[in-house]
Amino acid sequence: MARRPSQCFNYSGGSISGCYTGSRFKSMRILIVEDEKRIQDFLSRGLESAGYAVDVAGDGNTALELVHATEYDLIILDLMLPDTDGLSVLEKVRNRKSSPPVLILSARDAVDDRVKGLELGADDYLTKPFAFVELLARVRALLRRGQPTPERLQVSDLVLDCIRRKVIRGNENIELAPKEFSILEYLMRNRGRPLSRTMIVEHVWDMDYDGLTNIVDVYIRHLRSKIDDKFPVKMIHTVRGIGYMLDAPEKAEKPVERQVEQSS
Ligand code: CA
Asked: How far is the CA of 72 from the centre of ligand 1 (A)?
């Protein structure tokens, strides 16, 4: 469910991540390290149409040459490469003075591989086969890291104050349990982007997600009953096959700054 124009992507918090063409903004550049032609094409086509500049390396040595020559914003790294193991590529990339975030994409889903990859400094790990929309959500989350995070989030008439831990919709104060607050904050920071249950669990519970993804549905039900049920405009949307997304039509937006201040 891509609601925004694919050529230009922006973060609703205000900072623009990149535009593909005809813009003064530089495209984010992604290196795909993958030897399988089919996956190479699938990834580069998808990421290019999402507005990213993409380079492809079919083996580890080419990847390292490209990393030395070019400044990447993100590397997507396959583990089983024809000339070397992806983990040793990761190690070399991490030994450089500045190194971009690395998303490991691998058919190896053994816990050992996952742990080793993360220990060596990978930022995220996705197992094949994967849905492109899940990969894109993770890519965007990684690219957004390091950007300043606003203290106050607003989507339409829903306001979340990250410092005072308050939530207001319209004129109404909404009481949320800590996990509900964290999920809502994560959804609002990623306004308009589908987030998988796995991503939500990993973000909010900060632990291995096995067997925990159903809990997300339970918490989303609670959240909906508090922030959506009695309002005509629903903000939490189910994205079939993926998870959830928070968004609302722009035109309903009006500043509610004073209400937050008064309520604190
Ligand atoms: Ca491979």
From this structure: 21
Number of other residues whose CB lies within 10 A of the CB of residue 108: 18
If pLDDT is split at 50, 70 and 90, which confidence band does 104 have? very high
Residue 160 in tokens? 């979340």
pTM of the model: 0.58
Q: How far is CA 236 from CA 60, 161, 196, 221, 246, in A?
A: 42, 18, 13, 10, 5
> What is the whole-number distance in angstroms between the Cα of residue 33 and the centre of ligand 1?
9
C-alpha to C-alpha distance for 161 and 262, rounded to whole angstroms: 13
Tokens matching residue 75? 């590397």
CA–CA distance, 120 with 106 (Å, rounded to integer): 15
SS3 of 23, please? coil
